[in-house]
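Onboarding guide, step 5: your first structure request.
Type a short instruction followed by the sequence, for example:

Predict the 3D structure of this protein.
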Amino acid sequence: MKLLTSMRAQRVSQTEREVTMSELKEKKVQAEDSEYSLSAVPKDKKVQGMWAAMVVLVGFTFFTPSMTAGGNLGIGLTLSGFLISMIVGNAFLGIYCGTLGYIGQKTGLSLDLLAHRSFGEKGSFLPSAIISITQIGWFGVGVAMFAIPAAELLGISPFILVLIAGLCMTASAYFGIKALTIVSAISVPLIAVLRSPLVLGVYSMVLSGIEGGGLTAIFAKSAGSLSILGGVGLVIGSFVSGGTATPNFVRFAKNNAVAVSTTVIAFFLGNSLMFAFGAV
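The system replies with structure tokens like these:
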């Protein structure tokens, strides 16, 4: 009897140790994966406030190639056509991305996990691959549009700036949403306040309006080669791929109101400004 009792006690002790080790491993994994890349964000970790979410998303929409798309709109449309295309296109993006933001905050899941839940393990490969390919293009175009003109200005090889900018962008992504919040909290106010692309963009718009006889006169020189429907498609297409990743940015938001409102405001404010700068 004593032998059986001793064996049972050893088994219980071993089971308890296994459970304890399993719990420790799980806690370690959670500690290492503070971004919850393979699971939903717990409710107690959803602490992202309005300002934190806003600077990340506005910084996300301050994308130089959007100015190029805005320039194409300005060349191909009249002033009224440009405004209609920009408002309708950004309204669609706001609704689309706002809906995704709501889902992301509600579930706490990233875009890839949402695709896995929606399409299954194998079915999620296709949407994940499509988004990955388009984001690689976004990464390359964004880095190049910074590096090439900056290299000409500084008189250095653009490859050096491509490498530096690429490493910085990769580092911010590697360290996750906290790093993006810090970078955006610094860069967005600087863009808005200092002698920066935003100030220069506003200055350029005002100067162009004065020297060109006003916005109506500037757009009157348009070739008229683009329809309003084509303009709306250009606005939507310029950012619909990046906007699809909205759940990745707002799943840490405190509540749905923060997630949706910041997404809609960011797309109307940031994207509209970039298009306006490019057009004028």
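Each response can be followed by summary notes, for example: The chain is about 80% helix and 0% strand.
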